[in-house]
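Components:
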Amino acid sequence: MSKSKLFDQTASGLIEHDHNNDGINRRGFLKCMAWAGAGAVCMLQGGVMKSFALGSQMLDGTHSNSTGELSFVQISDSHMGFNKPANPDVIGTLQAAVAKINALPKPPEFLLHTGDITHLSKPDEFDTVDQILKATNKEIFFVPGEHDVLNDNGASFRERYGKRSKGQGWYSFDSKGVHFIGLVNVLDLKAGGLGFLGSEQLEWLENDVRHLKSSVPIVVFAHIPLWTIYPQWGWGTDDSAQALSYFKKFGSVTVLNGHIHQTMQKVEGNITFHTACSTAFPQPAPGRADGPGPMKVPAEQLKAILGITDVNYVQGRHALALMDSTLA
Amino acid sequence: MKKNTLAMLTIAAAFAAAMFTIPIHAHGQADVNHSTEIRIDNFKFTPETITVPVNSQITWINKDDVPHVIAANNGAFKSKALDTDDTYSFSFAKPGSYEYFCAVHPKMVGKVVVK
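Structure:
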């Protein structure tokens, strides 16, 4: 394949992109997504989507393709306190996610939680999640979802998780040469709008990355997707384009989001966008239901539609390897 | 002449008094017994637009499996987080057009027109 970029402007937004000198095979990607629900693992390595059955040799950590210099796990949307038919036991499914994390062939350095930790922003709900996640023995970096800031504009959230944060809860940190940025896009939401970052946060973000070398891999994590997936259901962020413009110079940018309770992925230029499954309940695919609310599935299928994401960074490769796996 | 004027003034005063008391009394009867319901279901307000008389009370009831927060665009009212089956009521004392949204799911919008 030539080194020129090919843009396929389909409705799904997937494009063919000569990233890292590998091609992205769109057909392979779609096939992979269909397998993910059956317990397969999709791995994006250097821009190429590969799938492996869970438990296969390729994932045992000894194969060079899956050995990264930095591994971390993204979990999302634990909705502690939810107790309706779509999942009457969100404690049990979060514990299953923890068991999965503890069984990973390559232990993660830390966890990212991309929000909706709780369902109703209640202190005991936060306490329960903290208690359950303690069993991973890892540091956890949180960003809030809209369910975490219901009553006080995020004050108690920041009190609990925002010791290092600026403004209304954004922050950044570095790990093994990768620069991580936690953004908050669930506060000061405008009537009729989508997620919202705001000018103070955008200004902070621009300054935060201004002096970084373009070779530094960037990982941005925020609750609501930073690309427009389905605006009718609020699945997007009004001012994300400006945020993304600050990353133009970087060779590798990975955006990790939650909120939609299903995995979705898009690559655009140097940016890989990814949304994670929930550990609590699934939501319908865009437009496939009247609204984006909790979706009931037969009880025996629930764990196959909830999941975690294992992320590996190998120094020298541009794109991070993202592995979605389900709880069963 | 003086007697007639006095009589007319008395009648006019009585008439004016009647005019002032009867409508207020009627309004009082109307809002004590009546609260109009707006239902929240599937991330929508039903009815999305409603017109009510001044001093009406509106009660929102959440029938979704997720919480919602009712917030007026102009800040005139804001509920706490409403879980499933929770309600929030507000009485509209002034006429006007009150656009509101769900502060948690801002794509959800509605309007109360008070006449």
